Each structure stands twice: as structure tokens, then as C-alpha cells.
């Protein structure tokens, strides 16, 4: 086989890789926007009454397989308490994305998971012999649809619905412990 | 056959999580204004410096807890391997482990031998074992002093590793 042919083969795979990566980041940023829209809806009345100040700014995320990209971090200022809502990444174990809610008393996690999942699960699927992606993929599950949920902390991680009541509860926990 | 005498000191992941939770709460309390030593310990600090130091302590705690969780998983797989040999169960995996034990004894490589045998027995767990092997590379990096920049494929932290550990415990019928 000529070097030229091999060069072509290598570059075609590079292009695939870049476009897959771009697609994945684009999808992830859209998922983040959807989450932020939900959160803005939850706190809208408080923001309108100026009891909560909601701001956002760009943070840089570096994920090994996706490279460096920028995403929005939200900041909820409630009196003297600052709550940050920080995107962690989409290449995480057991989920399609994770965002951390941090306050002075601790952290809570928001995860993008199968809409029907109530805890981290591994769906049993037959794997083709030559599918050797190993840890390069986070597709431990093949979801039927995705939803943002609140993950309870260890020792028993379970997923609860992300609604206004549960979100407020999480904010109070990371603020007051 | 000389049997390995189990110490009974093997820590489960739930115990590690409880330990983590208590120590994290203690650190947060220590770095808060209600701590009895706050005024002297953090004399002349700016609040942002106190927070930065607190977050560094918690990050280190996360790493050590993560390390212990992975050690706990290794122990669980090794105890299972030995129990399947000692109890002479008739299932295919136990038979495979007895054959391996006949050749190599108790000192077998976790990833290359034990996890491979699980994967051969149940190919549907290939992806989960792939994740686990990736996490063990992270543990290797920590165990050897973290002095190089590892290529791990993803970032690992306490929550991610605990999630993985919970999935592993749920998925594999380990005889512990």
C-alpha cells in the first residue's frame, strides 16, 4: 500500500473525529442551555423581585476526548450566599453530562440521564466482538430519552426529578447543610 | 491447598462514603466562622483565601476516598475469586477460576486475569469492565505519586468513581 493511500486513510479518520467531537460539544452545550432555561424558570419570580441575582459567565472546560471549549456557568446570589452552577462535562461515568451545584455547605449534582432511570444502571446489551471502545465511551446505557435529574449523594446514589421544589431543596442544602 | 486468611478489614464502598461525608462535614465546619479556632487559625486571611484552602482540603479528601473505593473494588473481586475457588461452585466462572488458581494460585493479575474471566463469562459486561479498567489506571497514577500527566480518557472524581462502584456492585454477583 502506498504512503499516499495511507495518508488519505488517516486524514479521513481525523475529519470524522473532529466532526464527531464538534457535534458532541454542540449537543452538550444545547443540553446545558436547556437545563439553564429550566433553572431560570424556577427562580424567575425571585429574580423579578430582585431577591436573587442571577448572572452567568464563560468557563473553560477541558475534556480529554473533546478538547477545550467554553460553556456557561450560572451564579445565583441569594443575600450573602453564592451558589454556582458549574458544568463538569459530558464525558462522565454513568451519565451523558453533569453539572455541579455548589454552595458554602456542600455540593449537589445534576446529571443528564435516561428519563426513566431512578439510579445509575447498566443496561445489558450484547456487544459485538470487535467493539473495543473501552473507557473511551460513556455509553453504558442506551437511553430512550434524556432528562436532567438531581443525583442524591453517596452512599446510595439515586435520581430524583428536577422540578422547582427539588431544585429549591438542593439549593437550601448546599447553602445551609 | 493453603487458603488465604481474610482479615475482615475490607471496607465496603458504603463505609467509605460515610467516612467521606463525615470528614467533608468536619472540614467545612473547621473552615467556617462557627469553628472555635477560626479567628486564630485564619488570622489575616481574606474570605476567598479561606474558601480556597477549604476547597483544596476537600479535593484531597476526594482523591483519597476515590483511591479507597477503587481498592475496595479490587478487594471485592479478589475475595470473590478466592471464594469461588474455595467453595467449589459449579458455575462456569467458578470453574474457570479454579483452573486459573490451579496454575497461578492466589496472586493473579486483577485486570488481565480476573476481570478478563468475568468478561469471557459474560460479554455484555465488557463496557462496564472497560470503565473499571480506566478507573484503575487513575488509581495507578495516584498510587505512584501523581508525578506525571496521565492520559486517562476522562477526568475522575469522587462522585464519578462512586457511581461506577455502585454500578459494579449492582451488576456483578460478587461472593464476598
Describe the structure.
The complex is a heterodimer of chains A (177) and B (176). With 177 residues, chain A is of the alpha+beta class. Chain A has helices at 3-48, 164-176; strands spanning 53-63, 67-78, 81-89, 98-103, 106-114, 146-151, 159-161. Chain A has a 7-stranded antiparallel β-sheet with strand order 1-2-3-4-5-6-7, covered by helices on one side. Chain B is mostly helical. Helix content of chain B is 68%, strand content 0%. In chain B, helix 1 packs antiparallel against helix 3, helix 3 (47-86) crosses helix 4 and helix 3 crosses helix 6 (126-143). Chain B starts with 12 loop residues before the first helix and ends in a 5-residue tail after the last helix. Chains A and B meet through loops of A and helix 1, helix 6 and helix 7 of B.
Oligomer designation: heterodimer
Instruction: Give the DSSP E fraction of chain A (strand runs of 2 or more residues).
Output: 25-35%
Helix content of chain B: 55-70%
Order of helices and strands of chain B: HHHHHHH
Biggest interface, chains and residues, is:
A-B, 39 and 37 residues
Kindly state the number of beta strands of chain A: 7
Low-confidence stretches of chain A: 127-139
Structural class of chain B comes to: mainly alpha
Give me the Rg of chain B, rounded.
Answer: 20 Å
Q: What does the overall shape of chain A look like?
A: elongated
* Arithmetic mean pLDDT of chain A: 87
**DSSP helix count of chain B?**
7
Q: By helix and strand content of chain A, what is the structural category?
A: alpha+beta
Largest sheet: number of strands, sense, barrel closure of chain B: none
Tell me the distance between the termini of chain A.
65 Å
| Main β sheet profile of chain A | 7 strands, antiparallel
State the shape of chain B. elongated
